[in-house]
Amino acid sequence: MHAPEARRTWNIWTIQHNFQVTCLNREQNILPQMTTYLRRLLPTLCIAALLSSSALAADHTPPPVGKVTDYAASDTHANEQVTVAAEPFDKPEKTKFFRVSYLEYGFLPVRVIITNNSDKPINLTDARIQFISAAGDTIPAALPEEVERAIDKPKNPAAPCVKLPFPLPNVHGRSGDKSKQINEDFDTLGFQAFAVEAHSTQSGFLFYDINGLDRPFLKGAQLYLKRLHNAEGKELFNFTIPFDKYLAASQSAVPAK
User: Fold this and answer.
1) pTM of the predicted structure, to 2 decimals
2) 211: which of 16, 62, 102, 106 fits an S-S bond (Cβ 3.0–4.6 Å)?
3) How far from chain centre, in Å, is Cα 45?
């Protein structure tokens, strides 16, 4: 009476056992193949990751800094053995490595290069590096939050504001993302030196708010540096760098048509 039930139980156990053995055999056959495949794929993935990270880093790498005396717009104090040069990044094609299009929002990036050929350091703690327009406007270097406010400001603040009964979606991206990009630019590309050691060079970018200036804003303008001190605390003579020198050199570098 119990034989059919026992046979049915044995048959089910046999089917389960055969299925497990078959799966085990398949796993044993597949695992070496997967291991070989992964071993072959791993170097490719590593190379791709390295290339990707290198490309991302290169996206925000500025042009290399040249010798300070090679820049057209410069001022050398022979007695103090200090030279300061300035290069405006006044064209969109020159600013592609920045994370933010500063020119679009009315901010001019200027690379400042200071070379100290003396035997003692130069103190920049109290230094002021200002953009002086042709009309005499004195513009200090902008802080990150000042750039952020200008970017968040409406394009036409004089236009009448119509209050809507519902909020509009943000189609320009989150302001927090832009703020992060601005701070990254200032941290990695900005001029941050508080001193220039003997026989060394310091460089970096400063950003100037040129909104409202007459065009061309570089014509007749200059970069003005003051309150630089030597190791004894004596103030150096002020540096004046006319941007007309840069404009003249840029025009002469353009090939004739």
Assistant:
1) 0.71
2) 106
3) 27
